[in-house]
Structure formats: C-alpha cells, structure tokens
C-alpha cells in the first residue's frame, strides 16, 4: 500500500537541503504508489489560510542536489505552536494551530512528515510526535550543534566557505601588517570557528565555550610583530563571550521570531583590543549569510542524500518519532527525545580539536592559552 509523505524544511537555509529533498523523492519513487509533497515555507504551507503544498516528482528534483537553498522554501518564524496571525486592528498575535494542522493532515491523506531542520525544528518534530503525528527528523544546521550525529549536513560546506575567506584575509593582513578579525556563524557552538581556525592557520580562535580575556589576546598579538611589521589573524564565533559572559546581538523584531540576532562581536573585540593598547591597525570582516548559501561541497551532498534515503526507509518501517543520524560509518537513527537531551557544544577540556589547536599555538584568549 502506498504512502503519502509531507516534507518540510525549517529554520535557516543550509547547503544540502535540496540534496535531502532529492534523496527523499528518488527513494520514495522506488516504492509502488508512494507520493512526496513539499510543504512550502516550513509548516506554513499547511498552516496558512491558503494551503500551499506541492507534489514533488523525480522531474521536479532532477539536478537540484548541486543547488544551495531549498526549493520548498523555509522560515525560522512561527510554526504550528506559535503561528503569527494579524488582527483586525493591525496588531499581531501568535496562536496554536496544531488542531488545524492535524485536521488538514488527515483530510489530505498524509501518512508521515519528514521534517528537515536544526535544534528548533526538531523540537517542533518532537512536540508534533507527542501529539500523534508520524514524524521523522533529518538533522540540518551549519552550526553542527545537534547531538547523537557525528555531523549535520551543511556544516562542512560552511567551514569550507569560511576557510576560503580566511585564506584571503591572511594575505591582506600580511601585506598591511594588520590584525584581522573574521566573525563567523555558529550561534552558541564554536565548531565553525574552531575548524576554520585550524584549517586556515589562525593565531587566535574565540569560541562561545571558552570566555575570552582581551588582555591575553593582546599578548598573543604582540608576539606576532617585530618592529613595525607583522600580522595576526583571528577567527571569532558570533556567540563568543568575554569574561562577563554576555553575548552580542539584538532582540528579534519580526513577528513570530524568538531568536536573538547574534552579530557584532567582531567589532566588540576590536574595540576591546584597542582599549587595552593594541597598536596595529585592526579590521573586521563579518561573513554572515555567505556561510549558508551556495553550492554544497561533495561531502554534504553525499551525507544529505544518505539522510534523505534513510528517512524514507524509516517511514517504510514506521519507526516514527526518530531522527536520522550519522555515526561513522553508519547512517542510523535515535529517538527525537534522545537527540534533544543536550546540545552538541565544544568541550574545551576533552575536545581533540581544542587540544590540536593549542598544540599548534592557537590562543583561545584564556589563561590556559598562556601555557602554550
């Protein structure tokens, strides 16, 4: 008997989303009478007053694995539990539309949902599962902050983009004897910054998991100069914190958006370094959404395709309430509850990457860095 699968992509866009969608559609096509539908703009497609759900065929997904973004759109605002609704007076309020979603889901004859997204999206998956929806999650985020999986797709592409940008800053820093600070994404996880720092040969790497002291960073910078000449390159994660423990960003302003808008920590560090007496010219580069866009590298295309195929197989086996994961060399699954028990952050005291970085002289701006 055939099945009817609803696919959604939620949260920020990410290299490899289209490869997952393609993997889902092509694997489902191997089963008799199976159909895959895309729910446009995450779950908005089934929640809006005007339903926007589209059949996805093999022709629709042909060649999309090389494209960035998602052909079925995405959003990090709202959702079935906090859907923004405009009132007659022009104001907005959020409402729980899960009852409407369940009604439409059943009326349209869907058997299962494959929800492709990061931590926030998978928490929605778990809540929907608790309400009786047949849900399979696929881990997507450039931040790599979901536990139980070795990697989330999109992460390796983001690191590649950041490293290529950092390589270019190294040469201009050297030419002008400057200090360059490159701010990368990652929210509360330092994985992008840490991998970029090692791959790009940074002198300093500042991550959210290790609060920094600008005085210690200034000491590291000083070792990079002999007379008037020298240079220093710093990678800093957007969620980095100084010793006061405060992140840098702005409160959300869009209706239905509950996420603080991180950003500006590179400029903050520049001001702090100048305040403690760093004399060389300091420049800041913010990569921002460049890290989320563009063509996924081969690694992420392969991983995303594996995730898509596995998600359909889990639907076939009716193993709902689970998240597809990668534990080298296997593609497997865990319960959504298990996957969300704790986030995947860098563990400074036990991480081999931190040990490697310290071993090649990268400073994290902490007391431990003074020993290297």
Please tag this protein with its features.
17 strands, 12 helices, seven-stranded mixed β-sheet, four-stranded parallel β-sheet, 20% strand, alpha/beta, 372 residues, single chain, elongated, Rossmann fold
What does this protein structure show overall?
- This protein has 372 residues and is of the alpha/beta class.
- It has 2 domains: 4-153 and 296-339, Rossmann fold; 157-291 and 347-371, Phosphofructokinase domain (Rossmann fold).
- The protein is 34% helix and 20% strand.
- The protein has 12 helices and 17 strands.
- The strands form 5 sheets. Strands 3-2-1-6-7-16-17 form a 7-stranded mixed sheet, sandwiched between helices.
- The longest helix has 22 residues, at 155-176.
- The protein starts with a strand and ends in a 13-residue tail after the last helix.
Tell me the number of structural domains.
2
Q: Provide the helix percentage.
A: 25-40%
Q: What's the story with the biggest beta sheet?
A: 7 strands, mixed
Distance between the termini: 63 Å
Low-confidence stretches: none
> Under CATH, the topology of the largest domain is which?
Rossmann fold
Computed CA radius of gyration, to the nearest angstrom? 22 Å
Order of helices and strands: EHEHEHEEHEHEHEHEHEEEEEHEHEEHH
Number of strands: 17
Strand content: 15-25%
Q: Tell me what the CATH architecture of the largest domain is.
A: 3-Layer(aba) Sandwich
Major sheet: arrangement of strands: 3-2-1-6-7-16-17
**Overall 3D form:** elongated
CATH class of the largest domain: Alpha Beta
Number of helices: 12
> Mean of residue pLDDT?
95
Structural class: alpha/beta
């Amino acid at each position: 008997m055939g099945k009817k699968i609803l696919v959604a992509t939620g949260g920020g866009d990410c290299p490899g989303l289209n490869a997952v969608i393609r993997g889902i559609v092509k694997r489902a096509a191997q089963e008799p009478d199976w159909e895959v539908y895309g729910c446009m703009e995450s779950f908005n497609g089934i929640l809006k007053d005007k339903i926007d759900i589209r059949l996805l065929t093999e022709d629709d997904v042909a060649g999309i694995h090389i494209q960035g973004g998602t052909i079925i759109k995405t959003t990090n605002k709202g959702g079935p539990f906090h859907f923004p609704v405009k009132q007659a007076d022009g104001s907005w309020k959020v409402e729980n539309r899960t009852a409407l979603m369940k009604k439409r889901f059943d009326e349209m004859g869907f058997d299962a949902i494959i929800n492709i997204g990061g931590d926030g999206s998978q928490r929605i998956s778990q809540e929907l599962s608790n309400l009786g929806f047949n849900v399979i999650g696929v881990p997507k985020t450039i931040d790599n902050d979901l536990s139980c999986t070795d990697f989330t797709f999109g992460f390796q592409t983001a690191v590649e983009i950041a490293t290529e940008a950092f390589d270019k800053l190294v040469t201009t820093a050297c030419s002008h004897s400057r200090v360059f600070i490159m701010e990368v994404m990652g929210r509360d996880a330092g994985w992008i910054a840490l991998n970029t720092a090692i791959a790009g040969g940074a002198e300093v790497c500042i991550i959210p998991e290790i609060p920094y002291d600008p005085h210690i960073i200034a000491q590291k910078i000083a070792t990079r100069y002999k007379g008037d000449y020298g240079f220093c390159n710093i990678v800093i994660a957007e969620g980095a914190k100084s010793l006061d423990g405060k992140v840098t960003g702005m409160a959300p302003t869009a209706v239905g958006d509950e996420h603080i808008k991180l950003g500006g920590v590179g400029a903050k560090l520049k001001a702090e370094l100048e305040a403690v007496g760093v004399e060389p010219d300091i420049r800041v580069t913010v990569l921002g959404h460049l890290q989320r866009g563009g063509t996924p590298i081969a690694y992420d295309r392969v991983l995303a395709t594996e995730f898509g195929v596995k998600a359909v197989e889990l639907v076939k086996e009716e193993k709902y309430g689970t998240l597809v994961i990668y534990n080298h060399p296997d593609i497997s699954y865990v319960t959504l509850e298990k996957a969300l028990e704790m986030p995947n952050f860098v563990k400074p005291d036990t991480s081999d990457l931190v040990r490697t970085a310290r071993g090649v002289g990268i400073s994290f701006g902490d007391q431990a860095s003074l020993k290297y």
